Amino acid sequence: MKELSKVAGEVRASTTLAVDALAKQMQADGIDVIGFGTGEPDFDTPENIKDAGIKAITEGKTKYTPAAGLVNLRKAIATRMKLDLNLDYDFTQITIASGAKHSVYMAFVALLNPGDEVILPAPYWLSYSEMINLAGGSPIIIKAGEEQNFKITPDQLESAMTEKTKAVILNNPSNPTGMLYTRSELEVIAEICKKYDIYIIADEIYCGLVYDDKEFVSIASLSNDAYDRTILINGVSKSYAMTGWRIGYAAANPKISKVMANCLSHSTGAPGTMNQIAAIEALSGPQDGIEAMRKVFEVRRNYIVKRMNEIPDVSCIVPDGAFYVMMNLSKLIGKTLGGKLIENDDDFAVTFLEKGRVAVVPCSGFGAPGFVRWTYAASMENIREGLNRLETFLQA
Ligand SMILES: Cc1ncc(COP(=O)(O)O)c(C=O)c1O
Prior knowledge:
Strand 6, helix 9 (224-229) and strand 7 (230-235) form a beta-alpha-beta unit. It is built from 14 helices and 14 strands. By secondary structure, it is α/β, with parallel strands linked by helices. The protein is globular and about 60 Å long. The protein has a seven-stranded mixed beta sheet with strand order 2-8-7-6-5-3-4, with helices on both faces. The chain has a three-stranded antiparallel beta sheet with strand order 9-14-13. It starts with 5 loop residues before the first helix and ends with a helix. The model has no long low-confidence stretch (mean pLDDT 95). Bound molecules: pyridoxal-5'-phosphate (PLP). Pyridoxal-5'-phosphate binds at residues 39, 99-101, 125, 171, 175, 203, 205, 235, 237, 243, 248.
């Protein structure tokens, strides 16, 4: 048979999901494994949101919606963006997609011509690089190590610019690092993007999960210019514990949103109607649930960071937001653990899973070799036990 698409054939499987799949298989086989792999809140979707989805079904709201999403959902998003971020978007500037992941992909589809370059700060969420490739672009990776708090510097950004640079992706707060750019750092980044006339894809899906009373600033809010060149991505998955409902959105200038809406109309044609209706309730209903969850995450973050830094040979810096922590295991490279020589973070993750019965995500795939990512979107009991197991595993 003829060859498949070269571009599609080169897409790597998600390492996050691969570790999770192995962990789930072990659990299914009756092995007691604790998972810190996938980034999804362990909380259930709040009742008022679930009820809105159920009511939509019983009332027969089961037909197609406009391809860019229900007008009332797009209006609810515009209102929330005004309230939370002081950003003014008309509902026509907002497109709904099947999760923020899909919104990011549609942003690349809307922007990229073959060979266009997208600057991708590492550590990065693995899906970005694959989506850029799928949309015909080339990811240009700039590395921001732990010594620079996993944040890119203005010099690094400028050095990566070429004639072909079309956009930069800024995930703030970041998966996998949890780090947050400050207002002044964002101002410099926005100025550089203006100077080189490139788009900003701002993935702000974790904007509701910021700790220590730090200020979250949306880069689109900094100036009219930043607003015009930003495609702002967000969704309900993380803040409202709605990962399975698959509702994400993008807000952009009218020209970009129109192109995204057209592309959506010929690909997915909007997520499930009842899911969109549930998302309206999430965004317009009581918001106190978000703050309650944020507070719980902050307590867990404080605990995991403190304990991790008390364990010999591993360490982490304090993440500002999201629900991830990057464990530095460079001191373990070359050691034998669980009977296996640890040559890299992949070896560590597999051995820790098989022998320590804890699933974490190796970060080589995120452009950060020598680290594994733990999520603290897990119960306190599991976090405590996971760290106990780490101690035991390292002593064995
Ligand atoms: C940075 C980032 N963006 C987007 C997403 C995807 O969110 P959604 O579930 O809305 O597709 C994730 C999920 O892990 C993420 O970490």
